[in-house]
Sequence to fold (238 residues):
Amino acid sequence: MPATPINVSAANEAVLHLAAADAATANSAVDALVVPGMQDITINNSTGVFRFKTLDNTAESAVTTPATNQLSLNAIVDSTAFFGTAVALDDDAKENGLFGVSKNKTKVFFNVYFDGTDSNSKFLSGSGFVSGLAPTVNMDSPVWVTPVTIEVDGDFTQHDVA
Amino acid sequence: MKQRTKDRATEWLKTAKSKDTFSINTVPHTKKEIEDLLGGKPVAEVKEQINTDIQEESYGDMEQEHDEGHTEESGE
Fold:
């Protein structure tokens, strides 16, 4: 059977929403912080491994242990997304921006969309903490770029956009 | 609206019931709204408006320059 690739070349297909209030807020592009200017994104679901040897076997046995889940991405530093809207009525993630939720150690709910945000599109959701901000710029690359890591608290769950 | 969204919405319309909704950028729309969004045919009207703005003189100059260039090339 031929592979069915998920092609993101139409733009705005790989999308990340963040919300501080709850998972439902992360489902809404209007209410959530939609991270702009992403250059790449990686979803890590890395299980640990416990290996053991037995006297009746010539090779090691292995079982997996709970996974370390993490999102990592690089993004252009957008002023509003990074420093926040400063609008009190906005969700805290939107109000305080990436820098704010990292500095304040605010737990965020996230949705990572694989093929857009229209109905039936696949996405992974979860919650975690923003970390690893390291904005950088120089005269040869005169646009601020920052890595962002979301240390996931718990598991990823898979959904389709309703 | 992105072409990809149009394609998905068109496909969805084939089996959608009147109470179903289709989300565009996470915002749900009714079947009627989707039909309205996909239904318009403004392309022909836009073409007519563009044509009325073009001055005939400009066309004449361009054609003349092109003809002259073509003559020189063929002379070589």
